[in-house]
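User: Here's a structure from my thesis project, written as structure tokens. My advisor, Dr. K., wants to see whether a designed sequence matches the one we expressed. Can you design one independently, without my sequence as a hint?
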């Protein structure tokens, strides 16, 4: 048994599929099947229960999964620390970014970081903030950007954006001429929301319920620009952060401050407290924090 055997097993356990695990690891399915069979023979237990095309962990498999995670994590930490001791200013960082966050705040940061550390590669994963938080917690991502508050105390973080949500309506909407709108006034409107893996999806629904109504959701999307286009097409109303609203064409969409309540949109970068961070990841955090703070000061926020 070597560390790769455990890594292959963990990926099959995570994907619940030999095919998907092989694709994720960039190896052939026969190779991964043979490795798992060899691991079962060596340990003298069955690790995976193959039910048709589905794969489930046996009791022994669940025990091995827990121990293998600890072993692989320790091995990764050892490799990272040795690399740092050798002062290799190289590295690979897995970063989770919600789509509208990545396009609004990070292109310049990524460009400047690449100039400073050309041998550090950044692998960006675009997903909703809820999924990003889950993946940072599990170790699938090194660092992620989420909407505060997070649901866990296992993270270190720094906050870099504090904004609020605005209301988007079509110019012919009855509220289009207003200077501010209370959330309760939207009880009869059709809502266009982000998909369920976005933190704003649950946040908006929770605030609507507090305001006394269950929102009627007619469309969901992962893209803010598609949401604004649906508003422009008179398909419903939407609530989006101030940063996004600054790019709206007032001839097609009216942006109105939302009050009573004000729904905050606070962003933070998070990483696991108990996980070793490579030199590259620590530099990314420090570099990003400095650049975003500087950008905020220059914009007068």
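Assistant: Designed independently from the structure alone:
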């Amino acid at each position: 048994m070597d560390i790769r055997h455990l890594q292959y097993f963990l990926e099959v356990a995570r994907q619940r599929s030999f095919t998907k695990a092989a694709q994720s690891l960039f190896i052939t399915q026969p190779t991964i099947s043979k490795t798992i069979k060899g691991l079962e023979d060596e340990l003298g237990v069955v690790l995976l229960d193959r039910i048709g095309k589905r794969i489930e962990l046996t009791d022994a498999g669940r025990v091995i999964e827990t121990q293998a995670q600890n072993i692989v994590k320790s091995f990764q930490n050892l490799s990272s620390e040795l690399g740092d001791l050798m002062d290799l200013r190289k590295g690979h960082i897995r970063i989770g970014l919600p789509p509208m966050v990545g396009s609004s705040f990070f292109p310049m940061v990524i460009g400047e970081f690449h100039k400073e550390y050309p041998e550090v590669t950044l692998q960006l994963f675009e997903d909703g903030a809820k999924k990003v938080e889950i993946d940072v917690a599990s170790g699938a991502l090194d660092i992620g950007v989420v909407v505060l508050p997070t649901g866990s105390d296992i993270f270190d973080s720094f906050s870099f954006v504090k904004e609020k949500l605005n209301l988007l309506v079509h110019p012919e909407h009855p509220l289009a001429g207003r200077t501010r709108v209370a959330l309760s006034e939207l009880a009869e409107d059709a809502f266009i929301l982000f998909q369920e893996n976005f933190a704003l999806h649950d946040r908006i629904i929770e605030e609507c319920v507090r305001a006394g109504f269950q929102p009627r959701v007619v469309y969901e999307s992962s893209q803010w620009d598609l949401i604004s286009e649906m508003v422009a097409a008179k398909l419903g109303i939407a609530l989006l952060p101030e940063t996004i609203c600054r790019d709206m064409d007032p001839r097609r969409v009216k942006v109105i401050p939302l009050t009573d309540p004000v729904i905050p949109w606070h962003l933070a970068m998070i990483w696991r407290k108990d996980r070793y961070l490579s030199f590259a990841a620590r530099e990314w955090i420090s570099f990003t924090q400095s650049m975003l703070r500087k950008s905020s000061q220059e914009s007068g926020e």
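When you compare it with your expressed construct, this may help: The chain has a mean pLDDT of 87.
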